[in-house]
Amino acid sequence: MTSVRPKLKPDTPKTVTAWETASGNVVWLRADLTWTQDVSEIGVFTGDAAEAALEQAKTQEGTITDPYFMEVTEDGQVAGRETLRESIRANGPTVPYGVII
Amino acid sequence: MYRYDEFDAQIVKERVDQFRSQVERRLSGDILEDEFKPLRLQNGVYLQLHAYMLRVAIPYGQLNAARMRKLAKIARDYDRGYGHMTTRQNIQYNWVALKDIPDVLEELAEVEMHAIQTSGNCIRNVTSDHFAGATQDEIMDPRPWCEIIRQWSTFHPEFAFLPRKFKIAVTAAEHDRAAIRVHDIGLHMRERDGVVGFEVHVGGGQGRTPIIAAMVNEFVPESEILDYLEAIMRVYNRFGRRDNKYKARIKILVTETGPEEFTRLVEAEYAAQQASEKIGLPQAEIDRINAYFAPPAFEDKSATSDAFERAKTADPAFANWAKINLHPHKVPGYTSVTTSLKPIGGLAGDATDAQMMVMAHLAERYGFDDIRVTHAQNVVLPHIALDDLYEVYRELAAAGLATANESLITDMIVCPGLDYCNLANARSIPVGQEIQKVFSDPAYEQDIGRLHINISGCINACGHHHVGHIGILGVDRKGEEYYQISLGGRADEKAAVGQIIGKALRHEEVPGAVKTIVDTYRDLRTSTDEKFIDAVERLGVEPFQEAIYAS
C-alpha cells in the first residue's frame, strides 16, 4: 500500500522518480533518460515526452522499482501538493537521526 | 526465553535460503516488483519513503544480550547505526539495502531470530506485558502462553492468507500494559478454582475504525485455548470481508455480525472441532514451554538496599530517575528498570548501535540476561538488584538512556510519520519533539504526572493516537500538515477511544494547544492525586475544547 498519488495534467511540469531496486535509494530521471540520485540533476518533462519517459522507466523495472510522476517547477524544483513528501524523500528526514542525545 | 529446536533452526535457515534466491531473481530482473512484493512482505521487507525497511520480530518483546548485540551489529553493518523500536515490540531498520537483506536474515538466524510474519495478512508477533515474569501484579507469567501461541501461529498453513493482518496480545496482570482490548484478539489470563485460563476479547483495533474489543468468553481453560483461538480464526477466515481492505479486519466482522452472533459462530466451530480435530495440547508440552521461562536464580535479599538508599541521598538525579523509571518486582530486593528511548529532542523509540550494546552489557552483567522492548517504544531491564541499580543508572546515563520520564508527558508513542513512512500524511517526530520542549522542565512534567500522548502521522494509527490520553493525528489538507487532537483515549483495562475535540490545528499550533490542555487540567484537577485521564473522564472534553477554541 502506498499513499494516493495525485494525477497530474499533461502540461504540468514533472519528472519520473523511483527507487533503485538493489539499494532502495531514491532516484530521478535526468533529461537524457538516465537515472540520478541527485535531485538537482532531474529532467523536466511535459505532455507526450513525460508519458514516454514514464513508459521507458517502466521497461527498467529490474533495476528500478515503482516509477511514478513527481510534480516539479519548470526549473526542476519540487512542486505541487506532494511538495513536503517529495522534499523529505529527496533530502531525508527533517530530524537528525542515529545520534545520542 | 524461547529456544529453537533442530526443526526451528532448519526451517528458518531454509527460509533465508529461499528469500536469498528470490532477491537474486528480483535483482536480475527475472521477477518484477508486482511479483516480488508479496514475497518480500512475507519476510518483513517494506519499501518506504527513502529506502527499504526491514521489520524484525522480537517475540513478545523479549531479547537477551546476544540477540541485542546482533541487532546492534546489524544497525552498524547494514544500516545507519540505529534501529527503531515499534509499538508491536519489534525493531525496524530504515535504510537497509535489499541486496544485503538475505545476509541480515542469515545473521539473525544465528541468534534464533527472523522477520517472518512481521508483515502480510497473517498472525503477527504476539505481544505481551513488558514486565511479564517480574511484576508484582501478575497472577502468573504470560510468556509461556505467548510462546505456545507463537509456535501455533508460525507457518500455520490455514492462517497464512487471512482477510487482513492479525494481532494477538496476552497479559496476566490486572493493570493491562499490553493494550489487549485494541487487538484482534486480547487474552487476559485468569485463575478460576485452581485452573488457569483466559478471558477472551475479540475485535479490537485502531486504524480508521477504532473499536474496543468485545469479550466473547469470560474463561477458556488453558488446555482449550488453542482450540478456541483456532475456532475464532476459522470464523474470521470464513466470514471476514475480502472485498474491501478497509473492512477486512476482524473488528468489522465482530461489529457487523454482532458480538453475540459472532460468539455463537465461534462456539459452534469450537464444538465441531472438539468432535473431530481437537488440538488437545498435551500437559507435557505446556510444561516443556513453561520450563523455558523458569525464573532466574534470584538471591535472597532484603526488600531494602543500603547501597540504593545511599546513592539516592548522594545523587539527586539518580533519586529522581529511580522515583519515575522503576517498577515493583515480585522478588524482594529487585526492580524492573525502564530505559527511556525518549530523551528530550530525541527520536522516540530509536536506539543507536552503541546504546544497544550498553543495554546488552547491562542485561548480561546485572540483569539475568533479560531485556524487553515495550509497546511504548522503550526498553526494560526486568530484573535488576537494587544493590546494583546505581551502577546500572550511571552506565545508562552515560549512554543517554536515563531520561526520567517513564509514562510522563514526554514519554510519547510516536510513529515514524512522514519523515520515513510511505503512508503518512504528516510528520510525527518533529511534533513530538516540539511538545517535549514545552514540558522539558522536570518539575513541571512531574507535577503533571502520568499522561500518555500518542502521535500518528496518518489514519492507520501506528502511533496509537486513538488510545492516547491526548491523541494527535496528522492529516493532509491540500498539501499542508494539520493535526487533529483527541482526548480521553486509553489502552489499559479501561480501554477507550479518544474523542476528537475540534477542527484540526496547524503544525505550529500543536505544542501550544497541548500546553493549554495540560494547564486546563492543572487548573481543574481536584488535587495532584487526580490523574489527567481521570480528570478528563470526570470533566468531559468541553472545558478543554473551550480553552483551545474559544479564543
How many separate domains make up the residues of chain B? 4
Report low-confidence residues of chain A grouped into runs of 5 or more.
none
The number of distinct β-strands of chain B equals 21
Rg calculated over all Cα atoms of chain B = 23 Å
CATH level-4 homologous superfamily of the largest domain in chain B: Sulfite Reductase Hemoprotein, domain 1
Distance N to C terminus of chain B: 55 Å
General shape of chain B:
globular
Spatial strand order of the main sheet of chain A: 3-2-1-4
Mean pLDDT of chain B: 97
Terminal residue distance of chain A: 34 Å
Query: What's the total number of strands of chain A?
Result: 4
Largest sheet of chain A: 4 strands, antiparallel
Strand content of chain B: 15-25%
Rounded mean pLDDT score of chain A: 94
Name the chain pair whose interface involves the most residues: A-B, 32 and 45 residues
CATH class of the largest domain in chain B: Alpha Beta
Oligomer: heterodimer
The biggest sheet of chain B amounts to: 6 strands, mixed
Succession of helices and strands of chain A: EEEHEH
Poorly predicted spans of chain B: none
